[in-house]
Amino acid sequence: MNSIQPVILWTDALIFALLLAVLVLVWLIRRQEHLLAPWRVVAQRPMAMGAALVLGAFVVIGLLDSLHYRAQLTDSPADAPQYSVEVLSVFDALTSELRSRQEKTYSAPLAMQLYAKEFVERDGATVRDYPRLQYGGAHLQRADERLSDITRRTLVGATQGGLASLLLFGLLAGWQVRRTRLAVGAWLAAWRQGSLNWPGRTVVLMVALLLMLGGALAQLASGYHVFGTDKVGQDVLYISLKSIRTGLVIGTLTTLVTLPLAIGFGITAGYFRGWVDDIIQYLYTVLNSIPGVLLIAAAVLIVQVYIESNPDIFDTAAARADIRLLALCLIMGVTSWTGLARLLRGESLKLRTLDYVEAARAFGVSNVRIISRHIFPNLFHLVLIAIVLDFSGLVLAEAVLSYIGVGVDPAMYSWGNMINGARLELAREPVVWWQLGAAFAFMFTLVLAANLFADGVRDAFDPRLGGRR
Amino acid sequence: MVRIGAILLGTGLLGLGLLAGCPDNSNNPYPGSKADANVLYSAFSERPKHLDPARSYSANEAEFTGQIYEPPLQYHFLKRPYTLVPLTAEAVPRPRYFDAAGKALPDDAPAASIAESAYEIRIRPGIRYQPHPAFARDAAGRYRYHSLAAADIAKNTRIQDFEHSGTRELVAADYVYQIKRLANPRLSSPIFGLMSEHIVGLKALGEALEKAAKADPDAALKLDDFPLDGAEVVDRHTYRIRIKGKYPQFIYWLAMPFFAPVPWEAEAFYAQPGMADRNLTLDWQPVGTGPYYLAENDPNRRMVLKKNPHFHGEAHPAEGSEEDRRAGLLADAGKLLPFVDEAVYSLEKETIPYWSKFLQGYYDSSGISSDSFDQAVQFTSGGDPQLTDSMREQDIHLITAVSASIWYVGFNMLDPVVGGLGEDRQKLRQALSIAFDYDEFISIFLNGRGIPAQGPIPPGLFGYVEGVAGLNPYVYEARDGQIQRRPIETARKLLAEAGYPNGRNAKTGEPLVLYFDTMASGPDAKSRLDWMKKQLDKLNVQLVVRGTDYNRFQDKIRKGNAQLFEWGWNADYPDPENFLFLLYGPHKKVASGGENAANYDSTEFNSLFERMKDMDNGPARQQVIDAMLEIVRRDAPWIFAYYPKSFGLRHGWVHNVKPNLMANNTLKYRRIDPDLRASRRAEWNRPVLWPIILLVAALVAVIAPAVIGWRRHEGKTA
Amino acid sequence: MLAYILRRLLYAIPILIGVNLLTFTLFFVVNTPDDMARLQLGAKHVTPEAIDRWKVEHGYDKPLMLNAAATGSAQFTDTIFFKHSAAMFVFEFGKGDDGRNIGNEIRTRMGPSLAIALPVFVIGLLVNVSFALLMVFFRATYLDLWGVVLCVVLMSISGLFYIIAGQYFIAKLWNLLPISGFAGGIDGIRFILLPVLVGVVAGIGSGSRWYRTIFLEEIGKDYVRTARAKGLSEGRVLFRHVLKNGMIPILTGAVVVLPLLFMGSLITESFFGIPGLGSYTIDAIQAQDFAVVRAMVFLGSFLYIVGLILTDISYSWVDPRVRLQ
User: Fold this and answer.
1) Which of B482, B531, B498, B513 lies closest to B430 in space, CA to CA?
2) pLDDT tens digits, chain C, 325 residues: what are they?
3) B162 in the Ramachandran plot: left (φ > 0), alpha (ψ -120 to 50) or beta?
4) Checking phi first, is residue B292 left (phi over 0); if not, alpha (psi -120 to 50) or beta?
5) Which of A13, A140, B19, C91 to pair with A393, CA 20 to 30 A apart?
6) Cβ of B504 under 8 Å from any chain A Cβ?
7) Within chain B, what is the greatest distance between any pair of CA atoms?
8) B109, B245 in Cβ contact below 8 A?
9) Full DSSP string of A79-148
10) Alpha carbon distance B517, B526 (integer Å)
11) What are the residues facing B44 on neighbouring strands?
12) How confident is the model at residue B718 (pLDDT cuts 50, 70, 90)?
C-alpha cells in the first residue's frame, strides 16, 4: 500500500471548521429546551425531514470529497517519497472505477457504443460505424443482451438497497421498542399509522428509497456509464457527483462570510444608531448599488492576477481552482450581506426600545453584554431563516456566473460548467442531452431539498407564520 | 376568475390567429423584408472594432472593409496558388531596384547590393467614390458639410440623415494620403511599426506627427503639410512607393485595406466637432470606392451593405480550372459584378441560434461549428468528408479549404527545463511532440477539420511539401505510404535518453512536472484541458494546466515566464516568410517584442532565413526552406499541432462560392436565387401548432375545476 | 416634497463617489492601462511605442489617483481617476475603449432593454398576483398545497434551463418564433414574445409564493374578519380588501426595481441577441472594456438610488402617516 500525503485545501479547512461549528451548536441547542422546541417542530414535518435526508446524502458526498490527498508515485523510493501533482479525495478513491474508466468521447447513458461513427476495422475491411465502448457494457457479448442486463442490474441493486434498509429498519424498531417500552406490534402499528411523535414513516421510506436508488446506481455504474460520457469520454455521473462539493461549498461558505458581516454591522447600526448607523448605511448602500455581477467579475479577475503572480503558492491545479472558488465565496458573501444586515438593523432598532433592554442599560450593563444577552438571541431565528433561504439561491447563482465566465475555475467540476458546456451539445444532432440532464437532475434535487427544508425551518421559527398553513 | 379564464383562452386563440395569419413565417427573423429580394443574409459573431482601413486588422472586420475599400491589387478569385491581379491599378507593379548611389540595378541583382526598391502604381482613371455627404458641394462649388455648426450635426444621427451627397474621382493622392495616415499617432495603426522599417521616411513622418500632436493636442493633424519621402504622387493617376532594400513580400501588402485610398474630404468631414459624439467617424462610417457601401451601421444588431451606384464595374473572372468550370464557377464569366443588391449581416453570438437559423434557411451560408458537425457531415470510406443525407435533402452544399494558418504548442526556449538547444532538450521536446496526439485531437475536438501539421508552413503556400515526402521524421513515420504518428514507445525512449526515464529525473528521481499555459475559456475549455493532461499521462509526465485570461497570458509570454503554451498564426500573405519569421531569432518575444513567442534562436536557422526571405520562388528557395524545416523539426521549439481546415456550408440558392483564404472581397462574386429561397423557407418553417392548442387545453382543464369550485363556494357563503 | 427629493439626491453624491472609487480601484488593479492598450491593439505586430501612443490617445497616460508632478488642485484633477470619473456626474460617459461614444450607445440600447424588461415585469406581476390569489382562495385545500409545491419546484430550476428549453422547443422544434434577434417597432413583437414568456415563467415560482404569504398575512387581519362578518362573499373580501391592501407592500416593493429595468437582464439579452444594456455589460466584461463597465456601474448605482427615493415617495403616497422630512 502506498502512503499518501494529505492535502488540506483552503475550502476543506473552512468546511470542516463549519462542520465543527454546527456540531457545537447542536450540542448547545440540545441542552436548552427553548432552543430545541422549534427544531422539534421541524422534525415533525415529513416534508422537511425527507428533504433533510436528501440534503444529508449530498453533504456526506461533499464531505468525503473534501478529504484531499496526493497519492505516492508508484516507483518512488521509500526514503524520499514523491507524490503525484494530482490532488485526489477520499471520494475519488471510493469511485476510482468511475474516474478511471474513460472512453474516447461522447456516449449516451447506459450505451455500449460511442455516440459518433468512426472508421473501424471489421472483417478486414474499414467501415464507418459506431465503435464499441472500452468500458461501458464491455462485458456484453451481443447488443440485444443489454436491456435484460440493465434490468437485472437495476433489480439486483434495488433489492440490495431494500435489504439494507430492512436491516436498518429492524435495528431502528428494536431500539425504539426498548426505549418506548411498547410491544413490537404496537410500535409497528403506530409507525404505520404515522402516530409516532416524529415522521417515522417518511424517514424510513426516504432512507429505503435513497438506499435502493444508490444500490441500483452502484450496480449499473459498475458496468455502464449511467449518465453517459462527455466530450473527452469522462463519466457524467462522476462529474455530477464531484460537482456536489462545489455547490455545497458555494452555498455554505458564502453564508459563513456573510454572517459576521451582516450580524456585526446590522446589530451595531441598529443598536448604537447615530454616526455608526450613518457609516454602515453608507457602506451598504454603496455596495448594494453596484450591480453584483460586475463586482464579482472584478474580484475574480483580481484573484486570477494574484494567482498568476504567485505561481509557487498554487503549485497544483487543484489549489488554483480552490483559491478561485474561495474567492468567489468571499466576494459573493461581501456583496450579499446587505439584505440581512438591513433586516437585523430594523429589528435591533425595535428591540433596543423594549423595556427590559432599557432597564438593563439604566442599570449600567455593558453594551456588549446587552447585545449578546438580549438583542442577538432575539434575532437568531431571522439569521437562521436567512441562511437556509440563501443556500438554494447561491447554488443557482453559481451556474449563472459560470455561464458568464466569472464563476468557478473552468477546470473545476461544477454544474455551472456542465450547463455551460451543454450549450454547444444541444446544437448537435442527435442532441447530446445527458450532460445537461444530469446537471439539471442533481441541481434540481439539491435545490428542491434545500427549499423544502428551508420552508420547514421558516414555518417553525417564524412566529408570524406559525401554524397558519 | 371566469374573466381570467376567458382572457387566457382569448389570448391563446388570438396568438394562434396571428401565427396563422402572418404574411411570412412567424419565426422569420427579418420581418418586413421580402424573401424574394436579391439580398444576401449572413451573420457576424463579434462586433467589429475598427472599420478604418488604417486600423482594421482582424478577419471579422475585413468582412466589411474588404467590400468597401479597394487597395490597388487583389487576389484572383479562382486561381490557385494565390495570384495577385490588379484591382484599381492598371497592372501589378514590378519593383525597380536601386543601389546606394541611386543607380538603377537589373532585376536579378543580389539582394545585398539593393539599397532601395521602387514600386510605381498606375491606377485606372474614372473610378469614383460611393455617394457620401463629405463630397457634397453647393451651387458655388463649396463643400456643403465641411463647416457645420454643432446644432446642424446634432440633427443628424446617421450618415443617411444628411440631405445631399456627392462623389469624386479616385486619384493617386488618395493612396498616398492613406499611407501617411498609417503614421498618424492618433490612429495607432497596427502595421505602423512594421511598415516604418520598410517604407522610406515613414518613421520620420511618424515622429514629426507625434511631435505636432503633442504640441497641440486638440487640433486636427493636416497630413498634407507633412511630407513623406517614400510615397509620392507622380501624376494624377500614378504614385510611387519607395522601400528600403529588397522586400519582395511588400507586393502582398498592396492587396490589403491598409493600402486602400482614403479621401481627405472624409477626414475633414468627420473631424468636425460633435461628429464623434454621434459615432460619426471614419472608424465607423467608411468611405470607399468598392462594389458596396455601408448603408446601415448598427453593430449591436445588424450591418447592411448596399450596392455602390458609382462602382467602376468589373467582370466576373473567365479564367479558372476545369474543376471550377464543373462547379459552375465560370457560368457567370464576363458578367458585370456585383450580383447581389444588398447584404444583411446580423449579430449572432451564440452557436445554437446561428446553426438553427441556417437550417431554417434564414442564413445563406454557415461555417460549421464542431458540435453541429455530426449532423452535417459524414466521412466516406476514403476519409473524404461528405454531407449527410438530411443535409443533401435540403440541397445544402459543402465547401472545404485548408486555411493558411497553423496552431502550435510552443516551448519557451528560455525555460530551464524544456528550453535550450542541447541534445537532451531536443529529445525531451521530440518526445512530448509525439505524446501530444493531435491526430486524436483533430478527430475529437475538430471533427476532422484539420490536418496534423508537419512543420510551420501550411499547405497552399510555397515551401509546403505534399504527402509522405513532407512528413516530420521526428514525430511521424511512413507506413504503407501513409503518414503515421510514431508509437508512444519511441517517445518513452526519447524521454529516457533526455534524462527522464519513466518521467522521473534520472539524477534526483523527482517526477517531471510541466506547466501548460492557455487562454482557453468557454464551454469547451474543460474538456480540452483534460485531454492535454491525458496525453502526458502516457509518458508518466505530470502536466499542470494553467488557464489564464488574455492579458495575463500575453504578459507571461512577453516576459518569457511560460513553459508550454498554445498559440496560432494566421497568414498575412501567401509567402512562407510569413510563417518562418515566427522562429527567427532576432524577432524573439522576450527583449525584442517580436512575434517569435517561443524565443527560438538558432544561428543556422537565422542565417538561412535571411537568405530565404529575399529569394524568388523556385527550386533554390525550396532547397533553403527544406534545410530550415529540418532544423526546426529536429530542435522542435514547437509541437506542430495542426493546420485548421475551414468547412463551410451553403444553401442551394447561393452560387459562386469558392473559399479564398487570402481575398476578403469575395462578396461581389456571390449570386443568389431569391425565388428558390423564398419557396424553401416557406416549406421548412411551417409552424407546429399542436403544442399551443395542447397548452390552452391544459390551462382550461386546470382552471375549469377551480372556477366551478369557486362558483359553488360563492353560492354557499352568499 | 421637492426639498426632500433634492436633499436625497445630494446624499446620493457621496454614495456615487464611493461607488466610483471602489470600481476604479478594483478594475485598475486587474487591468493596467498597458493591458487595455494591448487588448485593443490586437495580437499582431504590437510595439511598445504603439502602446504608449494608445495610452496618450485614450487619456491613460496620467497617474492613477494623485499627480505628484502637478501643483495645486491639479494634483487631483490631472489624474486618470478624475478625468474619467468627474464627467460622469453630468452623464458624460466619454468613449469606450473601442472608440464608440458610450452615452450614445446607452441611449440606443435602453429601448431594447426596456422592451423586454418592462413586459416581463408587468405581465409577471399580473400572473403572479393572480396565481397567489388563487392559492389563497383555496387555502388549506389540496389545491393550495400543490400550488405551493409547484412554486417550489419552479423555483428550484435554474433560469438557464428555462431559456434553453424555450429556445429549443418553441423556436427550433416548433418553428413558432424566431430563435433570437431584435427589431424595432411593430415587427419587433415576434422577437420579444419568447424572452418575455421565458422571463415570466422563470419568475412565477418565487413571485407567487412571496405574494401568497403577503395575502395570507392580510387575510388574518381584523378588518377582513369584520368584512366577512358583514356577510360579504369570500370573493368580494378577497378582491375588495385583501387584494387592495396586499398590493400596497407589493407595489412599494416593486418600485425599487423599476428604474433598474433600464439595465436589462444580462443572461436573457445575451441568449436572445437583444441589443440592450444587459448584453452591452456582458460584452464589456468579456472584452474587459473598462470605460464601459465603469459607466454601467455608475448608471446602475444611480438608478438604484432613484429607486430608493421613489420607494420613499410611494410609501408616503399610500400611507399618509409616513411623512417625508
Assistant:
1) B498
2) 788 888 888 888 888 888 888 888 877 776 777 777 777 776 666 677 777 777 777 777 777 766 777 677 777 777 777 777 777 777 777 777 677 788 888 888 888 999 999 999 999 999 999 889 888 888 777 778 888 888 888 988 888 889 888 888 888 888 888 888 888 777 788 889 999 999 999 989 888 988 888 888 888 788 888 888 887 777 778 887 888 888 878 887 788 788 878 777 888 888 888 888 988 888 887 777 778 888 888 888 888 888 888 888 887 777 666 555 5
3) beta
4) beta
5) A13
6) yes
7) 114
8) no
9) SS--EEEEEEEHHHHHTHHHHH---SS-B-TT-SB-SS-EEEEETTEEEEE-PBPSSTTTT-SSGGGHHH
10) 13
11) B347
12) very low
Phi/psi class of residue C72: alpha, beta or left (left: φ > 0; alpha: ψ in -120 to 50)?
A: left
CB of B352 less than 8 A from some CB of A = yes
A239: enclosing H helix or E strand: helix A236-272
CA distances from C84 to B186, C55, C81, C224 (A): 19, 13, 5, 57
Instruction: Name the minimum distance, in Å, from the CA of A426 to any CA of chain C.
Output: 8
Residue B214: in which H helix or E strand, if any?
Answer: helix B202-215
Element (H, E) at A71: strand A68-72
As given in the structure block, the three cell numbers for residue C230 are 358583514
Residue A236's alpha-carbon distances to A171, B69, B264, B507, in angstroms, are 36, 51, 61, 41
Closest CA to B56 of B255, B254, B251, B256: B256
- Tell me which chain C residues have a C-beta less than 8 angstroms from the C-beta of B32: 183, 187
Residues of A within 8 A of B370 (CB-CB) are 424
Q: Nearest to residue B601, comparing CAs of B433, B427, B413, B423? A: B413
Query: What is the rounded distance in angstroms from the CA atom of residue A196 to the CA atom of residue A186?
Result: 11
Q: Which of B27, B209, B346 to mutate to test the interface with C (most CBs of C within 10 A)?
A: B27
Question: How far, in whole angstroms, is CA B675 from its chain's centroid?
Answer: 31
From residue A238, alpha-carbon distances to A158, A413, A432, B526 in Å are 20, 10, 17, 15
Closest CA to A164 of A213, A226, A201: A213
Q: Which residue has the cell 459524414?
A: B378
Q: How are beta strands B542-547 and B513-518 bridged, if at all?
A: parallel
Chain C: give the shortest CA distance to residue B491, in Å: 33
- Residue B357 and residue C191 in contact, taking contact as beta carbons nearer than 8 Å: no
B353, B554, B714 ranked by CB distance to C180: nearest: B353
Distances (CA, A) of B495 to B412, B512, B545, B576: 18, 10, 20, 32
Q: Do C285 and A297 touch (CB under 8 A)?
A: yes
Please give the Cα distance from B271 to B322 (Å, whole number).
51
pLDDT tens digits along B82-121:
889 999 999 999 999 999 888 999 888 888 889 999 999 9
- Picking from B316, B257, B256, the residue whose alpha carbon sits closest to that of residue B287 is B257
Interface confidence, given as ipTM, is: 0.81
Q: Which helix (H) or strand (E) holds B640?
A: strand B638-651
CB contact under 8 A, B278 and C101: yes
Nine cell digits for residue B24: 411570412
For residue A301, what are the contacts with CB-CB under 8 A and spacing of at least 6?
A406, B549, C30, C31, C288
At B6, give phi and psi (nearest 5°): -65, -40
Of A75, A317, A428, the CB nearest to B545: A317
Per DSSP, chain C holds a count of helices (H) and strands (E) of: 15, 0
Work out the minimum CA distance from A253 to partner chain B, whole angstroms. Answer: 24
CB-defined contacts B:C, below 8 A = 159
Q: Residues of A with CB below 8 A from C39's CB?
A: none
Q: For B453-482, how does the pLDDT look when each residue is reduced to its tens digit (9 = 90+)?
A: 999 999 888 889 888 888 999 999 988 888
Judged against a pLDDT cut of 50, whether residue B388 lies above it is answered with yes
